[in-house]
Amino acid sequence: MSFEGGSALSSTLITFLLGLGIVFIGLIALVLIIKVMGAIMRAVGKKKPAAEQEASVPTEKKAEPEGDLGEIKAAVAAALATMLGDSVKGIRIVSFQKMD
């Protein structure tokens, strides 16, 4: 069994360079695919009808809580009762104010 240092080194170097090249070619292809898909999605997004675009623009409304106000008061009363260690019957919520 003879060992030729030059051929083993060149074989290892070629394998290393091929592997490195394949990885970078794959990464470049992935970046290009993502850019093309982004351009397609932007083009599809621009083709919305004018009525849909106007409907999708949010109108400025006063922020209202979702759900029934009675349910919200009940949830807040239950949370306060739990925190204070008191019964819910002993808590009466008069008003809500937004805190900054």
Model description:
The chain folds into two domains: 5-56; 67-100, no CATH class. The protein is built from three helices and no strands. The protein has helices spanning 5-46, 50-56, 69-84. The longest helix has 42 residues, at 5-46.
Offer a few descriptive terms.
single chain; 100 residues; mainly alpha; 2 domains; 3 helices; 65% helix; 0% strand; elongated
Mean pLDDT: 80
Shape verdict: elongated
Q: Report low-confidence residues grouped into runs of 5 or more.
A: none
Distance between the termini: 82 Å
Helix content: 55-70%
Largest sheet: none
Number of helices: 3
Structural classification: mainly alpha
Quick summary:
By secondary structure, this protein is mostly helical. It is 65% helix and 0% strand. The protein contains three helices and no strands.
How would the blueprint of this fold be written?
Blueprint (H helix, E strand, L loop, with lengths): L4 H42 L3 H7 L12 H16 L16
